[in-house]
Amino acid sequence: MSDIRLTEFRGQPAVRLRAPDGAQATVLLHGGHLVSWMPAGGEEQLYLSPTARYGVGASVRGGVPVIFPQFNERGPLPRHGLVRTRSWTPVQSVVRGEHAIATLRFTDDMATRTHWPHGFTAELTVSVAGRDLDIELCITNTGETPFDFHAALHTYLRCQNVEKAQLEGLQGCHYEDALLGVEGDQWGDVTAVIGAIDRVYHQAPRQLILRELGRKLLISLSDFEDVVVWNPGPEGASKLTDLPAEDWRHMLCVEAACVREPITLVPGDEWAGRQSFTC
């Protein structure tokens, strides 16, 4: 029997999705954070650190953190914004045809307005069916003044061995390299991870492919202009207390993002961006 129900995950309240064909996903209320995706008849596709921290104020290492309204430390707000460490409200959980769908919402409050004086709602909608996962982030300006923001779906993809994986599709893209402090252009079509990587690719193509031995994952973007590719490498992983030292080999972040150019919303307007996966 197919079902979508409230449950617990690592002691945290969560929404569990299960499609008629067995595809599954789990979303924490904390941060509106997708922590698991298992396609029908398949294995876990997202990386989640076994030493991740949970609970009030924590940012969970792995899955799909929601970044809004600031990316990383590119501004005066807390790192990666205001919503990934706060509790969201489930507003929908249904099975519709072949799809299991859940929507969670976060609305500004006194705590967010202390940092950022704007009225907004953020909605995250997750849909699973068969071999597909869709994640949509929708931001609405509910206040009385325009605002600018950045956003990202900080997706951690599970890898057997990231040093043997290949990310295809970024050839010709201009990028910022945060580790080297330089900008450049991607020459080849294959992006390989041989150590730490932290790049923002601008005006990225709408489709990328992550390949490993026996695995092909199609990544599609809609209304996200940038792609962030990140892996801490062995040295960076050793400095992260919520990531086992060797687990950098088992993950690659391929993030749908709007980083270079902010999005502007006038009162009453909304923006939505989507990242989709097919394995």
Automatic annotation (TrEMBL):
Keyword Isomerase part of the UniProt annotation: yes
Entries under Gene3D superfamilies matching the protein: 2.70.98.10
GO biological process: carbohydrate metabolic process
One Pfam family linked to the record: Aldose_epim
GO cellular component, one term: cytoplasm
UniProt entry keywords in alphabetical sequence: Isomerase
Keyword Isomerase: yes
Catalytic reactions on record: alpha-D-glucose 6-phosphate = beta-D-glucose 6-phosphate
Molecular function, one GO term: glucose-6-phosphate 1-epimerase activity
EC category name: isomerase
Active site: 154, 255
This enzyme's EC code(s): 5.1.3.15
SUPFAM superfamilies: Galactose mutarotase-like (SSF74650)
Protein family (similarity comment): Belongs to the glucose-6-phosphate 1-epimerase family.
Designated name of the protein: Putative glucose-6-phosphate 1-epimerase
